[in-house]
Amino acid sequence: MLKTLQRQRHTVAIEALGELSPLSWQHVNFYGRYRFEAQGLPLNLAAMASGMDIEAAILERRSA
To answer: DSSP letters of 28-48?
Structure first.
């Protein structure tokens, strides 16, 4: 993901990566039900981030 951001020159997103937790919370259900079964599938962060305007989202969150 970092290499992709560097190639696309997303400086704000690259800076924000240093503030992220390496923990995954795909197991968290925001309705109060939690599942901890290991499914053995790694997260594909690049796929999750594709199509997002990452820098705009980061700047919006910082200004709030």
So the answer is: --TTS--------PPP-HHHH
Percent of the chain with pLDDT over 70: 69
- Residue 1: count other Cβ atoms within 10 Å of its Cβ: 15
Q: Cα–Cα distance between 28 and 42 in angstroms, integer?
A: 15
CA distance 11 to 40: 32
The average confidence (pLDDT) of the chain is 75
pTM of the model as a whole: 0.40
The residue ranges of every structural domain in the chain are: 2-63
Number of neighbours of residue 21 by Cβ within 10 angstroms: 6
